[in-house]
Amino acid sequence: MRTTEQTGARQSTLRSSNLALVLRTVCAADGPLSRADVAARTGTTRATAARLVDELVAGGLLDEGERLAPPRRGRPATPLLPGARIGALGLQVDAGLLAARVLDLRGRAVAEHVEDADLVGSDPARTLARLGGLTTALLDGPAGELRLAGAGLALPGLVDGEVLLRAPNLGWSDVPAVDLLAAHLPGGLRPVLGNEADLAARTVAEAAPGRPGPLRDFLYVSGQIGIGGAAVLGGRVLTGSAGWAGEVGHVCVDPDGPTCRCGSTGCLEQYAGRHALLAAAGLPRGTPPAEVVARAGDADVQRALDAAAGALGVALAGVLNVLDLPAVVLGGHLAALAEPLRPRLEELLGRRVLSARWRRPVVEAVPGTPAAGATGAALRALDGVLDDPVRWVP
Amino acid sequence: MRTTEQTGARQSTLRSSNLALVLRTVCAADGPLSRADVAARTGTTRATAARLVDELVAGGLLDEGERLAPPRRGRPATPLLPGARIGALGLQVDAGLLAARVLDLRGRAVAEHVEDADLVGSDPARTLARLGGLTTALLDGPAGELRLAGAGLALPGLVDGEVLLRAPNLGWSDVPAVDLLAAHLPGGLRPVLGNEADLAARTVAEAAPGRPGPLRDFLYVSGQIGIGGAAVLGGRVLTGSAGWAGEVGHVCVDPDGPTCRCGSTGCLEQYAGRHALLAAAGLPRGTPPAEVVARAGDADVQRALDAAAGALGVALAGVLNVLDLPAVVLGGHLAALAEPLRPRLEELLGRRVLSARWRRPVVEAVPGTPAAGATGAALRALDGVLDDPVRWVP
């Protein structure tokens, strides 16, 4: 008996890993593949590849496009693409916005609702109910026709399983976020909770589900009201021992500096966080980054940008010395401010990073996708499909 | 033809991975195992386990101890232990010492020579020739009877392949260290080059070859003339994208602080490195840590220790915020100074680490093995035996 069961388990695992290999191969390709391409790229026979593809097509994980005339003689091949009828839901609460976004397996946002909101000091239960309401409305539309493979929720703080431990800029502590949200979502959806910056960093490391992004090793710095971050090594987000890694906003720039919401002093976000930077520049809180750039010649604004670039340089040089990453990727308002920040930031990284003489750190900015955390949460949920597609085929 | 070759390759790989599994099982055990124990722990038949054990015994990778009377009836079992006639050589140059140490596969130092030396600003070629000379003398003794599976060299700086790029406290730059040393080593030995702190951290993560140490997730802080470091996650040293990770000594504590040998300002090692601490305490450079502890009541010494603890608290809190590690392990002179440093350091970590409310960081000290880098270099060379024992069996 035992032997039979073990063999059964092994066969099921083999089928699952073969399906996963074929699915990842199609997702990672630059364009549509034929069944013959899949066979060649996975090193299997055409018959095996065709059988696996058929299973994935039946489950909606792969779509067949229109047959194209072959480049040379032979039968026309059917192009294969990642499924457009299966997707995942990504949700986000930030101090300045609420977001719900549905991505399909091709990584396209097929529906979204992003809404500005001032959620500093908000009530967690009411805020999550509001997010549940707008998500329900979104799924009542055309996006509801997609098969949802999962959902994720990005919050700007430390998370532990389904609980948010602390989000200083929301003023939230010990919030059973998944329970509170799930009560307001349709169809028993239960999102997986993650840290906003960890999830946003995925949108740089992953161009689409299963597809490597432009950078594989970098420090992502998420400019929000505060500052979050994530280190990505070999395309994988470094989560640390309990999932709390990446809090670059609370690296100390000057122990005698201003008091931070976290209770410490001189944290990076007290110089380069959105609110801190606008306050130092003498501009109102809602001022968009583009206006800050436009006013970069004003003395106060110039001084605030210099202080932010200096603080970023000192703090991020320390992080690069410890983590050995070749690039810093600025996100959120810091991406929009990259041009005025870059000269001083690059100069400091070049001077303070021990290895800079051999490899000078690069500063990149990712164009401002609002609510990148929501996109990352959906990408993570889609990873579940790529890792174990057998659950989705008939 | 291709099929036969592939099958051949697979069988060889299978044999290698089976031998590795058996060897690691014996190395990881708390005490000697019998062939039956090995069969049970690896999930193979007794016949297969016995055959693999015999191959490893023939290669000297396992030793058979004296047969013990069995606890119950049955034949006496032969106890198996990691081989004592196979070992590796670990070498180290630090600003204050030269070291050569031979470890056997049980992790015991079977021979060593550690010699104090002032190597600040020394000539790399002459220093490495001197290390080669003392290594040759060491291997002319009883340690020369061991079969050497490899060698490693620990240097306190950034390494790139076989070249030392920069070791600020030795004053060395762009040194072809392995070439220079190998010319003075017997029998074509060619050590693998590594960073001192990365290798020393292994001695905490690994109790002996193949055997987990007491901690699996920690930040190792190596107190030398300067300060090195290594982050260990899940028992593995985080090397970063080019092997340059862990430079905690150059995390900035105060941008307006003193100039560092690296060219930057306010680096941690300018407060807590051995030379900096002694200078601040008004003590001569050679003062041993025990004397610093004994004089902790003197005002100057107290002030220097406070400044060092404060700097460690600010810098390491930043590192823990980014890496999410539950423990800091102090090594070198910082281990010897742990008692006076700990109260202020723990207080600062508790206040400045964002997750400390849920898991307060712990500060440990590893008793001062002189030249832990040499031990780590030998452990890494022995890893090669554990990973691929097939090369060592007849």
UniProtKB/TrEMBL annotation, chains A, B:
Pfam families: MarR_2 (PF12802), ROK (PF00480). Transmembrane segments: none annotated. It comes from the Bacteria. One of its GO terms (molecular function) is kinase activity. Residues 21-64 form the HTH marR-type domain. Keywords: Kinase, Transferase. InterPro entries: ATPase_NBD, HTH_MarR-typ, ROK, WH-like_DNA-bd_sf, WH_DNA-bd_sf. SUPFAM superfamilies: Actin-like ATPase domain (SSF53067), Winged helix' DNA-binding domain (SSF46785). Belongs to the ROK (NagC/XylR) family. This is Sugar kinase of the NBD/HSP70 family, may contain an N-terminal HTH domain. It comes from Geodermatophilus siccatus.
